[in-house]
Amino acid sequence: MTNIIERSIFIAAPVDRVWDAISDYREFGAWFRVAIDGPFVVGQTSSGQMTIPNFEHVRWNAAIEAIEPPHRLAFRWHPYAVEAGRDYSNEPRTLVEFTLTETAGGTELKVVESGFDALPASRRDEAFRMNDGGWAAQMENIRRHVER
Length: 148
Known about the structure:
Blueprint: E1 4-11, H1 15-23, H2 25-32, E2 34-36, E3 45-50, E4 59-68, E5 72-77, E6 94-103, E7 106-114, H3 121-147
Antiparallel strand pairs: 1-7, 2-3, 3-4, 4-5, 5-6, 6-7
């Protein structure tokens, strides 16, 4: 198993448009499928309720680490923290970093999630596997959201 998930996708839109979809909490929520309570602020935790079918019980929490317009947004969260009634607060968090690069005809969006090796062994493999598949789907979600 590896410690890092890396995904990238080409989006046929300018960097500023993709940046808005990443950094504006309402737009992020629309494609990520989470109803977020308020704007992303460095040093604060962003919270919301997942709206993905069968995951509506999951509270989304992300500690915002960096907002560097229009090229980088980073947060820490508890990956695949979906078990109802389970307290994940004492577990380490992974780091999620979005980077945007201008390319011919659009933007390359890259997401890197790292830190899985620090998770409890009992759920490390599943969290990695589920987030690996989740990021593949979310990259398509943001591409469709921006290109519509």
